[in-house]
Amino acid sequence: MASSRQDFGLPAEPVVADREASVAEHVRAVLDARTRALVAHAPGTRLGADPEELHRVRVAVRRMRAVLRVARPHLDRSWSEPLRAELGWLGRALGPARDLDVLLQHLRAETTDLPPGDRAAADRLVAGVEAERRTARSALREALDSRRYADLLRALAAAVRTAPDRSDVDSRRQLRELVLGQVRQLREAGDRLPPDPSDRDLHALRITGKRVRYAAELAQPALGDPARRLVAEARRLQDVLGAHQDACVAVERLRGLLRDDTDPQVAFVAGRLVEREHHRRTELRARWPVVWESLRQAAEAV
């Protein structure tokens, strides 16, 4: 099983892309940095003691996959698309355990202030989520211990080692066009939203905003401060809409747990928690339009 840089062939020194680097070179630098993060945090992810380890691995996978998608016009798809597909497989293997980590952390925080008489019922709710998490973590470890994962690490290292030729084309212009292409998609998605968007609409907008962020991160070494501001504003939107999605997921999870537990006290506590999540969702819905407008303004400056 591949477990270190030497095992699967990353370069001895990190890859860096400068302002004159081609789009492909910028992609190579991202793959290098994120693969190193993946390898560094995979052991802690297997152990499961610190949820932040899994979070960092999942972020690394998501960013690599997003960058390969954004830069598709400038890459050889014979290697980039299979690599993106395999990163998608790994992301799906990591996702359930990470989502349950987030839910558990939130539920534990929300139940600390309950009266002593309600804590036992709250503990039963949390125990149900913990049981789901154990199952998800078993599947996660199976993926990380698989030959498929080891092959993916070798494929990432091979992509990093393949240094693309520098192009005579204005790469800064190409990177700016990539960012603007994602910005256009985001603006169109926002313009299509009804006055009172559904939870599904806002979740889709968050995903589109995340692609803008990753495109701007890819271009930041070449575009400088405008890209940096765009990254910051896209992250703010992602944070607000991500918390909104977490509240929606918490409501659905609590309802699912209730279907499996008919204890009246458990139902009472779950109802209180659902009410809190609805309140959190309402607050976040009031905040996101302001963040959205700031992102639109940042996009105008790129």
TrEMBL record:
Residue stretches making up the CHAD domain: 20-297
SMART domains: CHAD (SM00880)
PANTHER family reported for this sequence: CHAD DOMAIN-CONTAINING PROTEIN, SLR1444 PROTEIN
Name by which UniProt lists this protein: CHAD domain-containing protein
UniProt source species: Saccharopolyspora hordei
